[in-house]
Amino acid sequence: MRHLLSAGDLTRDDATLILDTAEEMRSLADRPIKKLPALRGRTVVNLFFEDSTRTRISFEAAAKRLSADVINFSAKGSSVSKGESLKDTALTLQAMGADGVVCRHGSSGAPHLLATSGWMTGSVVNAGDGTHEHPTQALLDAFTMRRHLGSLEGRRITIVGDVLHSRVARSNVLLLSTLGADVTVVAPPTLLPVGMSSWPCTTSYDLDSVLPKSDAVMMLRVQRERMNDAFFPSAREYSRRYGLDVHRMAQLPDEAIVLHPGPMNRGMEISAQVADSTRSVIVEQVTNGVAIRMAVLYLLLSGSPETSTTSTEEQTA
Amino acid sequence: MTAYLITGAKIVVGGPESERVADLLIDNGEIVAVGTNLDTPTDVETIDAKGLIALPGLVDLHTHLREPGREDAETVLTGTKAAALGGFTAVHAMANTDPVADTAGVVEQVWRLGREAGYADVYPIGAVTVGLKGTQLAELGAMADSAARVRVFSDDGMCVWDAALMRRALEYVKAFGGVIAQHAQEPRLTQGAQMNEGELSGVLGLTGWPSVAEESIIARDILLNGHVGSKLHICHLSTKGSVEIVRAAKKRGFEVTAEVTPHHLLLTEDLATSYNPVFKVNPPLRTKADVEAVREGLADGTIDIVATDHAPHPVEDKDCEWSAAAFGMLGLETALSVVQHAMIDTGLMTWAELADRMSYRPAAIGQVSEHGRPLEAGAPANLTLIDPAARRTVVPGESASLSRNTPFDGMELPGRVVATFLRGEPTVLDGKPAR
Amino acid sequence: MSPAPMPQSPDTQAAPRTVLDASDISRALTRIAHEILERNKGADPVVLLGIPTRGVGLAARISERITAVEGRSVPTGSLDVTMYRDDIGLKPARALEHTDIPPGGIDGKVVVLVDDVLFSGRTIRAALDAIGDIGRPKAVQLAVLVDRGHRELPIRADYVGKNLPTSLIERVTVHLTEYDGDDAVVIADKPADKSGDKPVDETARTGASA
Fold first, then answer.
1. How far is CA A300 from CA A2, A5, A76, A305, B88, in A?
2. How far apart, in whole angstroms, are the C-alpha atoms of residue B97 and residue B70?
3. Do both B135 and B26 map to the same domain?
4. Quick one: A127 and A140 in the same domain?
5. Which of A83, A116, A199 has the CB atom closest to B321's CB atom?
6. In the record, what terms sit under GO molecular function (chain B) (predicted)?
7. Would B176 disulfide with which of A48, A74, B144, B308, CB 3.0-4.6 Å?
8. Residue B205: closest C-alpha in chain A
9. Do B49 and B65 belong to one domain?
10. What is the pLDDT of residues C13-53, one digit of tens each?
C-alpha cells in the first residue's frame, strides 16, 4: 500500500492488517506516554479543502502520537481557480518534503489526482472526497463493529440514509463486504444512486423490515437542504420513514449496536434517546478514529518509500 | 496559381462505383479534370498519390475556435490550421465565444478572421438566444443577412430548454432557411452533472448526466419541429436511446438531422475511473452499448454526419480536479483517424460513406455550396489526400491547436492526412502545414 | 512434488544442524528460571516480558517454571518493539505484534526481557526504549535462549541458555512447538544473500536473529 484512496482498494488481508494494527494502537490510550516513535522525522500534511474539524483533529492526533511532524494546511476559500490551487498546492507540499498528505476535498477524485498526477511523491490518504469515499471512516466503523460483534463474517449490517451523496456509505459498503459482512442499504429511492446492482450489498426502501435482521445499524447524516432539491418531501416525513427512534430501535436484536459517523442531526435521522442509549457506540467511534488513523499512517509511512510493498507480505508468520 | 497533378490516388466518388484510381488535375482553384493521361500545363506540380485516398475536403459542423475571447485556448488561425491538418476545408465556428456570437458584428468578425487565416473556410454559427441565456431570441435575421451569411444557429453548450422559445426559433429561421442546432440537455436533470449516469457514476461519486436528459429534449424538439416544419439539427447525439428516437422519427417522416462526435464513436465512460479531466466532455462519454448504437446509427444514416465538437481548453482548465475542470476535447486533427478506426476498419462504412458523413452532408446541412462537392471536373478544388495504411500515435504536444486536451493521447490510430487543398491551394503538404 | 527433495542450489551448503534439542531447551529454561529467582531473591519483583514472536513463548515457559518452583505466578506479558527499531524507515512497513503489559504495570519492578536469539543487540535497544515509554522499572534484565555473538551495541544478556559462537554467514533459527511444531535450535548457512545487506536483524519474525 502506498496510498489509501478507496476502501475498495483494500484486500481482506490489507483491511485486517489495518484493523489489527489499530487494535495495538488503541492500547496506547492506556499508557502513561501516549506517543510512539514510529514516524519520527516524517512530515504529515493535513490538506483540507473543506472544513472538517473532527476529521482533521483525529488525523492530527494520530500523526502526533506517532511522532510525525504535522502541518495543517487549510486551503478552503482560495480565490484562484480551484484547479490551479490544487496543483500549486501539491507542488508546494512536494517542495516542503511532505511524506504523507491527508487530503479532504469537495471534489470526488481529488486525492486520486494528487496520488497519480506526478505533482508530488508522498503517500496520499483520502480523508473524504466529494461524494466518493471516506475510507478511514469506514475502517473506524468496521473496527468499532468488530470490537462489539467479533468477526464481521456473515454479520448483517444496515446503512440508512443519503447513500447517493454519502462518501461514508460508499466506503463502508466496499469495506464491510470485503470483510465478509452482509450489507443492506436503506434509503428512499431518490437517495440511492441509479444502477446499484453492481454494489456488493442489497438495497431496501423499508427500514422496519430490515431492523430485526441487523447486527449493526449505521445512520447517515441527512442534510436538510436535500429537501429543497426534492429528494424527499419534508424533514418530518423523512424522519418518520427513515429516522431511528426508540420504537424502531426496539426491533433490533438484543446485541445490535447503533453507529453514526457524525455530526448528527438529532431528531432527524436519529433521535436523542437513541444517540444516548447504551446501544449507541457513537462516542467510541471517535476514539477509535484516532487508532485507525494511526494504523493507516503507520502502515503507509513507516516503511522506506523505495521498498514499499503490500504490507500483507510482512504479515505472514 | 500553381497547378497540381495528383496521380494514382484512389478517388472516392459517390454511387456504386464508389472508388476508382485516377489522376486529378487542379488549376485555378478548381478540379479541371479527373481521369488518366490528362493534358497537363507545362509547369504543373505533380504529387504522387499512389496508395493514397482522395476525399472531398471535410466539413465540420461543430468547431469551437474560441476567438474572440479565449485566444489562450485557440484562435481562428490555430484552429483552422488544426482543421487543415485533419483534412478539413471548412469549419462551422460555434457561437459560445466571448462576446457571444449573437450579433452580426461578432459573426462577421469571425468570418473575416477565417478569410485571413486561409487554412479553412470558417462559417460562423449564430447564437439562438442573446448571450446563450435562453430567454430572448438573438437577432437571427441580422446574422443571416450579414457578410457571414449565417444559416446555422445554436446555443451549443447550453440547451434551448424553453419549449416555447425553441418553437419560435424554429419558426423564425424558416424565413431564411436557417437550421437550429440543438444541444440537447435538459438542464434540471443535469444540474452539476459530471459524467454519464449509471453504475460507474455511483461508484465514482460523480454526479450523473442521465441519457434521458438528452433523449427527452430530442424527442420534444423533433415533435416541435414536426409541428412548425422547420429545420432541426441535433448536436453530438450520444446515447442509444437518442439513436432509436431519431431512427423512429425519420421513419415516420419527421425532418431532423443529427451528428455524432468522433469521441462518442470510440471512447466509453470507464475512462473517468482515472479522474483525469481530459475525459470530461459534454455530453459525457457513455457506455459500450451507446458506442455500438451510435456507430450503427451513423452507418445506417440515422445519424447524418460526424462533427468534431473540437473544444480546446488551456492546460489549467484540465490540469485540476474533475469537477473543477472544463468540459470538452480536441477533435479536428484526430477525427478522420478515429472514424476510420471505428467505422471503416470495422467494416461498418465505406470510404464513400465516410465522404458522405464528413463532407457532403455536413456541407448540405450547413448550406455551404463551396464545399462537400464530389471530386469531379468543375468542382472547387477542396480535397484531402490521406494515407489509410499509415499508423500513428497521438502526441498532444504535436497538435497545431493551442490546446493539448486530446483524449487520444498515446493511442495508436490508423490513417494520416498527407495533403489538403483549399480552392486549389495546398494548406497541408507532406502532412505539414503548407505555409 | 518429488518425494526426495534435493538441494536446489549447486552451492555447497552445509546441511542444517540441530545444536539444541527439546530436552536441551527445556533444561536451559529451567536453569534460567532458577537463575532469575536466585538473582532477584524470589519472584516478587519480577515481570517477564517476551519479545514477539518466540520470546513470548519462551517467557511463558519460564513463567511456568517459576510458578512450579515458587508456588505462585509472576506477571508475564509481551512487548512489541517494531516501532522502536532503528531500521524502521529503511524497510517496508511491518505488521505490529501484540504488546501486553500485565495489569500491575512495570513501575518499580524488575523487568526481565525474554528473547530467543541475541545477535546485534539492536532489538534489545529498541526494547529498552519501548520500556521507557511504558514506565520506570527498578531494573531491566535480559534472558535469551541463544547468544550467538556479533554484538553491535554495548548490550549483554543476564541469563543465557547457550552461548553459540557462529559465523556471520550462518543463520540461527529457534523452533518452538507452539509456533513451529517442534523444539529445536538449528544452525544453517544463509542462502546466498542477494541484497547484500548486513547480516543483522534480517527478520524479527522468524526468530532467526536479534
1. 6, 12, 26, 9, 52
2. 7
3. no
4. no
5. A83
6. allantoinase activity; dihydroorotase activity; zinc ion binding
7. B144
8. A132
9. no
10. 667 899 999 999 999 999 999 999 999 999 999 999 999 99
Contact with chain B for residue A87, Cβ under 8 A: yes
**Cell numbers representing residue A77 in the block:** 476559500
Q: What are the cell numbers at A163?
A: 447513500
Residue range of the domain that includes B289: 57-366
CATH number, domain with residue B268:
3.20.20.140
How many angstroms away from the CA of A175 is the closest CA of chain B? 13
Fill in the DSSP letter of residue A4: B
Residues of B in contact with A108 (CB under 8 A): 194, 204-206, 275, 322-323
Cell numbers at residue B231, please? 429545420
* A158 is an annotated ligand-binding site residue: no
| Residue contact B203–A198, C-beta within 8 A | yes
Pick A86's closest partner by Cβ from B194, B203, B321: B321
Q: How far apart are CA B19 and CA A257, in angstroms?
A: 75
Tell me if chain C has a CB within 8 Å of the CB of A209.
no
Same domain, B222 and B304: yes
Measured CA to CA in angstroms, residue B72 lies from B317, B342, B401 at distances of 11, 32, 10
* Residues A218-260: tens digit of each pLDDT: 999 998 777 778 899 999 999 999 999 999 999 999 999 999 9
Residues C92, A313: C-beta atoms closer than 8 Å? yes
**Domains annotated on chain C, with CATH:** 22-84+97-166 (3.40.50.2020)
The helix (H) or strand (E) run that includes residue A156 is: strand A156-160
A188 marked ligand binding residue: no
C-alpha cell at B159: 440547451
| Pick from A83, A8, A128, A3: nearest CA to B276 | A83
Q: How many CB contacts within 8 angstroms connect chain A with chain B?
A: 94
Domain boundary among B343, B366, B389: B366
Q: Do B281 and B202 share a structural domain?
A: yes
ipTM over cut 0.85:
yes
Given a cut of 70, the residues of chain B with pLDDT beneath it are 14-17
Which pLDDT belongs to residue C5? 46
Residue B386 in any domain: the answer is yes
Please state the domain count of chain B.
Answer: 2
CATH of the domain at B16: 2.30.40.10
Does A273 score more than 70 pLDDT?
A: yes
| pLDDT tens sequence across A81-108 | 444 578 888 998 899 899 999 999 999 9
Residue whose C-alpha is closest to residue B10's, from B422, B431, B387, B391: B387
- In this structure, is residue A107 part of a structural domain? yes
> Quick check: do A and B touch, 3+ CB pairs under 8 A?
yes
The 10s digit of each residue's pLDDT in A159-168 is 999 999 999 9
The pLDDT-based confidence of A308 (bands split at 50, 70, 90) is very low
Beta bridge partners of B203: none
Contacts of A130 in chain B (CB under 8 A): 205-206, 323
CA gap C50, B17 in Å, rounded: 90
Write the DSSP string, B285-333: P--HHHHHHHHHHHHHTSS-EE---B----GGGTSS-TTTSPP-B--TT
User: Taking residues A166-173, what's their average pLDDT?
Assistant: 97
CATH number of the domain where residue A69 is located: 3.40.50.1370
- For cell 437577432, name the residue: B139
Q: Which of C94, C101, C133 sits opposite A33 (nearest CB)?
A: C133
The CA-atom distances, in angstroms, between A91 and each of A94, A99, B274, B320, B405 are 5, 13, 20, 13, 21
